Amino acid sequence: MAVEIRRVESKRDLKKFIRFNYELYKNNAYSVPDLYEDMVSTFSKKKNPAFEFCDAEYFLAYKEGKLVGRVAAIINNRANETWHTSNVRFGWIDFVDDREVSGALLNAVGEWGKAKGMTDIVGPLGFTDIDAEGMLIEGFDQLSTMATIYNYPYYPEHMEALGYEKQTDWIEKKLYVPESVPDGYQRVADIVMKRLNLHMHHIKSRKEISGTDLPYRIFDFINEAYSPLFGYSKISRKQVDQYVKSYFPLLDMRMISIVEDSENNLVAVGISMPSIARALQKAHGKLFPFGWFHLLKALFVKHSDILDLLLVGVKPEYQSKGVNALLFADLIPACIKMGFRYGETNPELEENEKVQMQWKYLKSETHKRRRCYHKSL
């Protein structure tokens, strides 16, 4: 029986779109579900500031009357202008192990994109780089994180069978917490701090930054530090407002490392938090009635021994000068004191040698790899 593709046109349809992922990965030991409320906001044209520069459509796939797949079609106009591309993105793609289904979903994205003048289809990508991106191709037996996608091993098999090719890969690493700060980091940190006249900015409490422009300075810094990276589009002020409101209350100030110059300008930033992957699994995508309890417990009462390294960035003109050693010399003692066993990086572009080299003084292992695919329309 043929696959039927339907557009998401109502709140009821959107609920099905979001919940399909929960059902497909129900009882999966490695998948970490997003919170339903967060997904509603992400897909809402009224609530998601990315719609200032993005267009999107959502599709559901049915076969024999049963929901068997979903996908979001996205055009990030800002990214296309920045990188001189005409790409339609596919994101939040899930499907049963049936190539008619995956093919029909991706064809729907491609046809929608072609109608809007696009020439290529790429993904999985979200609206912006803040969204999870990349299809898992290695590490299917590893616990996912709150910021990444988990998918079954048959997904990349479908992509290759449908003629999609590699655009780029990201890798993820486990970084084991040492017993003390490695001499390599401490020695470089001491030299660089004196030579470049830098200092650490330690945030003692949330009150210290409440009502200040520091969170906005951090996001301005992210825009500058990450602008050369694959497909990056700048985060808007409205997006920053949303992220500050949603995520800053969750952060432990001990897990924020900031390096500043003599005029208190940001030079490097590292932001981490305890893994909440298991808590999100227990919440089953629901904040209420008990999901909030699991999350707060994981953040502020009994945290995991796994640390999520959300962000490590160095201002472009300070890169390759050893400044990141200051971040690690600052963060590692806190990790030891708080009992973390290892940290897990966010996806890093495989060709980004600067990022790979910064971990050289730590015991590490590459345990996941994910891919962005592309195809001409």
Low-confidence stretches: none
Secondary structure tally, helices: 13
Specify the CATH class of the largest domain. Answer: Alpha Beta
Structural domains: how many: 2
- By CATH, the architecture of the largest domain is named 3-Layer(aba) Sandwich
Mean pLDDT: 92
Which fold name is given in CATH as the topology of the largest domain?
A: Aminopeptidase
The biggest sheet amounts to:
14 strands, mixed
Gap between N and C termini, in Å?
Answer: 26 Å
Topology as H/E string? EHHEEHEHEEHEHEHHHEEHHEHEEHE
CATH level-4 homologous superfamily of the largest domain: Gcn5-related N-acetyltransferase (GNAT)
Oligomer, anyone? single chain
Helix content: 25-40%
Q: Please state roughly what percent of the residues sit in beta strands, choosing from under 5%, 5-15%, 15-25%, 25-35%, 35-45% or over 45%.
A: 25-35%
Would you write up a description of this structure?
The protein folds into 2 domains: 166 residues, Aminopeptidase, CATH 3.40.630.30; 202 residues, 3-Layer(aba) Sandwich (Aminopeptidase), CATH 3.40.630.30. Helices cover 35% and strands 26% of the residues. Helix 1 crosses helix 2 and helix 6 packs across helix 12. The mean pLDDT is 92. It contains 13 helices and 14 strands. Strand 4, helix 4 and strand 5 form a beta-alpha-beta unit. The longest helix is centred in the N-terminal third of the chain and has 17 residues. It is α+β, with helices and mostly antiparallel strands and 377 residues long. Strands 1, 2, 3, 4, 5, 6, 7, 8, 9, 10, 11, 12, 13 and 14 form a 14-stranded mixed sheet that branches.
